[in-house]
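hiii so um. not sure if this is the right channel but i have a protein structure encoded as tokens and i wanna go backwards to a sequence. like what aa goes where. can anyone help
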């Protein structure tokens, strides 16, 4: 036993074993450490989920712009994004995704995560025209896959002629067309475009016969009028106004009334029962946004659109004017325009 005890003492030297005082000190430190460990456990188990559950939005939002940087669409989107960011308290970062006549970027929005951190600045071209004229190029359903959040801007379309033409008013133009069927040639940016559909609406409402001359967009639509190759054009008023200001063109009719063009009539002002189509841009998200996200986003978008300073800045850009429409109104607007365009496309054989 003694020999075994000596061995034990050699294996465990006396100074390694804690004394009674050291044991008491260790116990006191453990007692003090327990509350700290409990607090850390609370942070890990309770604190992290509470951080994740912070109200929307709690980090930057991406705004997809389906056009090139520097385009009018891009400029308008960035003005709106700046005001929305101030209201929501987070940065809104525009991301340009051009292609397919704004269809590509719109598709990106439709397929994005439904959390409110990817929004889209979308046009009627992608939500109304393309699904009807080129359905094979569109993989989303405008009414089922996208959540309307508010219409931002209209850009009217117009009927215009050379300043030197004999027609001073739309009525004179129509009277001539009735007496001379097919003799008035009208340029547009292409078959199945909104300006083309407006020609069909005019012919349907007035009974005249016009000759449609489609181009592939761009300035060729306007230069055809200026060069005397066609008698009139149906195009965006923003492209026409600079030539009006230099005394080379005259606008006979506008698709939507605004303070910018108080003396140019619309169809209903002239006694017809239907207006022409106009272009527009609005805010959208992928369908299925959580209700708390919509409660934060929709009022912020409305307030940003109605900001007088931003409105004044936007309306200095010729041919565009701010006109807020609620999500419900915007959805109805898409439905109505789609029905009109589909009926015209079927009549023209552009859609089977």
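sure thing!! here u go:
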């Amino acid at each position: 036993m003694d020999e075994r005890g000596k061995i034990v003492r050699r294996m465990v030297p006396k100074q390694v074993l804690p004394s009674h005082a050291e044991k008491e000190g260790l116990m006191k430190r453990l007692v003090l450490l327990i509350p700290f460990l409990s607090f850390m456990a609370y942070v890990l188990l309770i604190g992290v989920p509470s951080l994740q559950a912070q109200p929307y939005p709690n980090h930057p939002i991406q705004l997809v712009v389906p056009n090139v940087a520097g385009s009018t669409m891009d400029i308008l989107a960035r003005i709106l994004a700046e005001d929305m960011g101030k209201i929501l308290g987070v940065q809104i970062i525009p991301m340009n995704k051009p292609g397919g006549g704004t269809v590509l970027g719109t598709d990106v929005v439709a397929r994005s995560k439904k959390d409110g951190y990817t929004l889209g600045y979308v046009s009627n071209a992608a939500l109304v025209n393309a699904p009807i004229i080129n359905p094979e190029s569109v993989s989303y359903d405008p009414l089922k896959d996208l959540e309307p959040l508010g219409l931002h801007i209209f850009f009217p379309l117009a009927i215009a002629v050379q300043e030197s033409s004999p027609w001073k008013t739309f009525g004179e133009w129509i009277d001539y067309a009735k007496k001379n069927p097919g003799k008035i040639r009208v340029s547009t940016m292409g078959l199945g475009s909104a300006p083309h559909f407006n020609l069909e609406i005019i012919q349907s409402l007035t009974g005249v016969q016009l000759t449609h001359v489609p181009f592939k967009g761009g300035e060729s639509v306007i230069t055809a009028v200026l060069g005397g190759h066609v008698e009139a054009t149906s195009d965006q008023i923003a492209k026409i106004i600079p030539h009006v200001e230099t005394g080379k063109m005259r606008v006979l009719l506008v698709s939507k009334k605004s303070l910018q063009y108080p003396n140019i009539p619309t169809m209903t002002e002239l006694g017809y029962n239907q207006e022409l189509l106009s272009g527009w841009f609005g805010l959208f998200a992928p369908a299925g946004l959580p209700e708390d996200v919509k409660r934060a986003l929709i009022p912020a978008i409305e307030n940003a659109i109605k900001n007088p300073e931003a409105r004044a800045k936007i309306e200095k850009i010729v041919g565009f004017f701010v006109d807020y429409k609620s999500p419900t109104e915007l959805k109805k607007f898409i439905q109505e325009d789609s029905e009109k365009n589909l009926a015209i496309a079927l009549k023209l054989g552009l859609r089977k």
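oh and Residues 113 and 253 are 43 Å apart (CA to CA).
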